[in-house]
Write a structure and sequence with these properties.
Elements (H helix, E strand, L loop, with lengths): L12 H11 L5 E3 H6 L8 H13 L2 E4 L10 E6 L18 E5 L29 H11 L3 E5 L5 E6 H9 L7 H4 L3 E5 L4 H11 L1 E5 L5 E6 H29 L5 H6 L18 H8 L2 H5 L7 H18 L9 H21 L1
Parallel strand pairs: 4-7, 7-8
Antiparallel strand pairs: 1-3, 2-3, 5-6, 8-9
Length: 351
């Protein structure tokens, strides 16, 4: 451990135990979720990631794979920072007949990686090329799947079969006795590919298979999975937009431009403030925490409680704006929903 660790760096006992285990010749590891729990966190928000990285630096450790880019229930190993060298990825699996090659993508921000999605880490149900078609369709009906990968092993993928591929072949009068007769080309991405690259491929081909650094197929991501993920991401943004619009509606008719400019942060004095839409969320708090200005709203509710909650929403907002596929804590999401509903009721009662 470094002798000159800054005292404000928080290093949990569990992390020090990993350092001790490594020095004893062990290979310490933990799931990402467990690592976060040592910091009393359940997700990888901007502030949490910064705290974890500071603690790892303080004890001269790194994780491999990097904890920020992996699925939350993936295990990572703790390694000595000074001697660590990332292992080379496995060579791509050669393309075979009926199989599209893995799509190569540039390095992406860890929080945008496809491999952080749950579906990318759920090994898909598959069938072999020689399987009877009835067996494949029974699996699809049983699990309510629209498609199944055609695989001979966790590394060897021959194609994909779907209701669309079956219907297309039958409509053309082609025999479909076994799976191979009805399969079509599949498409793949590495787990470290961009989530946004996956969207375009899925939109065109309905799904994408995901391979890890050992070339094993770890999951199948569909349009439904992407829709679910973006619902998780979009709801906080929509709620924050609603809250901010309602706060602006409260402020707009009550304050002059000069009064709005007066709450502009001193460090941001060069920024133009011509109306309420030019204020930051923190400046809403500064505006309303003053009792004289608060009284202009003519609201018969407790000022300190309102401002306290508004400050809490500001904290959540700062975290939400650092796009994170883990989503936000259920507690934080509940606070956004509750405050949005409160402002809606307030508007109806005072309107």
């Amino acid at each position: 451990m470094n002798a000159d660790i800054e005292p404000e760096v928080e290093v949990p006992d569990e992390l020090r135990a990993q350092q001790a285990a490594l020095r004893n010749g062990e290979k310490p590891r933990a799931k990402v979720r467990e690592l976060l729990s040592w910091f009393d966190a359940a997700r990888r928000g901007f502030v949490v990631v910064r705290r974890v990285r500071a603690a790892l630096d303080a004890v001269d450790l790194v994780t491999w794979p990097d904890f920020e880019g992996e699925y939350i229930d993936q295990e990572v190993f703790f390694m000595d920072k000074a001697s660590f060298r990332p292992p080379k990825p496995a060579p791509p699996v050669p393309a075979t007949e009926g199989a599209a090659p893995v799509v190569a993508t540039a390095a992406v921000v860890p929080s945008h990686r496809l491999g952080r999605l749950k579906a990318a880490n759920r090994r898909p149900v598959s069938v072999s090329p020689a399987e009877r078609l009835e067996a494949a369709t029974t699996l699809m009906l049983t699990h309510d799947f629209s498609q199944l990968p055609v695989m001979q092993s966790d590394r060897s993928v021959k194609g994909i079969i779907s209701w669309k591929s079956i219907g297309s072949k039958l409509a053309l009068g082609r025999a479909c006795a076994i799976v191979q007769d009805c399969m079509e080309q599949h498409h793949e991405l590495r787990d470290d590919a961009s989530l946004f690259d996956a969207i375009g491929i899925i939109a065109e081909h309905d799904c994408v298979l995901v391979r890890d650094r050992e070339n094993k197929v770890t999951g199948l991501v569909t349009g439904a999975d992407i829709s679910e993920q973006f619902h998780v991401l979009a709801e906080p943004f929509l709620l924050l937009g609603d809250i901010e619009n309602r706060i602006r509606a409260l402020i707009l008719p009550r304050f002059s431009t000069d009064e709005l400019r007066a709450v502009r942060l001193p460090s941001d004095g060069g920024r133009a403030v011509e109306g309420v839409s030019d204020l930051t969320f923190g400046e809403y708090v500064r505006l309303l925490e003053n009792e004289e200005r608060w009284n202009k709203l003519q609201l018969r509710i407790d000022r300190s409680k309102f401002v306290e909650q508004l400050g809490r929403i500001r904290e959540i907002r700062n975290d939400v704006m650092h796009f994170d596929p883990d989503g936000i804590d259920e507690g934080d999401l509940g606070e956004l929903r509750s405050f949005s509903n409160f402002l809606d009721r307030l508007e109806k009662l005072t309107g």
